[in-house]
Amino acid sequence: MFSMSFFITELKKRCNDNSISNESFVQDLFSTVIDTADVRGKNGDYLDLDKSRISRILSQKDDIPKAMRSSLKKYGIIDSVKDAFAVFCDDYFDENSLDSVALTIKKAIQDDSTIPNGSKERIIRQDLDAKSLLAESFIIAINTNNKATNLSSCTIWQKGINTINVVSGELFNFGFNNRSQQKNIIVVPVNTRFDTHITTNTENERHPLVSSETLHGQWINRFERSNHSISELNKRISNYLQLKGIKPINSALSKKRRSSRIPGRNYCNN
């Protein structure tokens, strides 16, 4: 998946100066944002990334500093950062190297399902030279989660900027990714009553409602850990079904089970 770590690694492979350290290379790269946007740390000094922090970013143990990401929100600053990045490219790369790394970076962004289509459009549809494409990609990298996840993705269909991707890994980390620029939607299969009671081993339930091992049960547990209550969840379900005009079918099987069955081929947005 595309990340700042991937972006830096691919850039440094084509760098004209083979002797430069990771620390010096990344500091010069990040200075195109830190110096241009006047990015400050908590103590009010210019943001300074030491060797240890840079190493953690490259190994995807750390994300990009929030101050860097926030600085791009300043009016007109992105164009200034791109200009500074162009100077950085002139210092470190020749034309052939830029063309080579630009193709690699462009494909990585195209194949990454977590990057919003709007960001992809800026590097796919526009007629950009290598330097401009890399500048756009650098902005995307700053705004993309850099910390490693257990997700892997492959594209099984693509037409223009539209893609269908198969993503494997921790589903809820993908669905609850707060750093993502787009809303990731996950669909969890449930039974026809949208039950919210997880049956435990201590209960003498002839017809178990929800197992904690299923996606249904895991989602409910995740919901509760997010400081929400089951009563709130039940209310959300009832309100949504009422809003959509979905009429339940009464047929209760136990005291814990929701009293109404929902007709098939329906969903509830939570």
Describe this structure in a few short sentences.
The chain is mainly alpha-helical. It has helices at residues 4-13, 22-34, 51-58, 66-71, 77-92, 95-111, 117-124, 130-142, 171-175, 215-225, 230-243; strands at residues 152-159, 162-168, 249-250, 260-261.
Number of domains: 2
Report strand order across the widest sheet: 1-2
How many helices does DSSP assign?
A: 11
Q: Report the sheet-strand fraction.
A: 5-15%
Compute the number of strand runs. 4
Q: What is the CA-CA span between the terminal residues?
A: 28 Å
Question: Could you spell the SSE succession in H and E letters?
Answer: HHHHHHHHEEHHHEE
Low-confidence stretches: none
Mean pLDDT across every amino acid position: 81
Largest sheet: 2 strands, antiparallel
What is the helix content?
40-55%
Class by SSE composition:
mainly alpha
Shape: elongated
Radius of gyration: 24 Å
How is the secondary structure organized here?
Blueprint: H1 4-13, H2 22-34, H3 51-58, H4 66-71, H5 77-92, H6 95-111, H7 117-124, H8 130-142, E1 152-159, E2 162-168, H9 171-175, H10 215-225, H11 230-243, E3 249-250, E4 260-261
Antiparallel strand pairs: 1-2, 3-4
Helix pairs in contact: 2-5, 5-8, 6-8
